[in-house]
Predict the 3D structure of the following.
Amino acid sequence: MLIPCSRARAVVPDPGIRLDRRTPGFMVWDEHGGTFILRVEELATTEVPAGESETGIILEIPLSFPEGLIRSLEEFAAQQQLPLAPPPGPELLEEAVLAACHLPGRNLFVFAEEPRLAVKKRGESAELTVTGSFKVRRVPCRETDLVLHLTRPAMARLVALVLSLARGPGYKGAAIGALMKHEVFRCTSVGA
């Protein structure tokens, strides 16, 4: 599933690399063997400027045009049969399985096991911030990307919170009542 991504940045102090997406685009949300994956591509690699204090990963999902985002999130939840419950608050703290970046120009795999994911509304975006103890390994890789791995329950809570933020306090979408009354989304198809 393609989810809008207005900002993608990763700053890793050792080996002093920053990854940025220069233009808004999308992140891919997918599932592989029970692990949920958020993946961002089309990243440019630069050296970390002297005095850069920001470390970790920041992803932003724009909330300014909520209808398309809400439709994509509802479809993703239905396809993956994610149990959604109203979020307990306006922010979320989760332990992720893995956060990583592939850097083919240097044959580096930068990763953090069990990083912390914080999600909150910042301006007109849902901001996902990932922090952890990043390590580096030399591994051949083909493309520059950034990935975040989540468990099914963590992904369900992430989707529920971003849906809630996209809807906002005054959202009057027709699917809200039905969406929150059902514990699990089920995919249905219409036969021809």
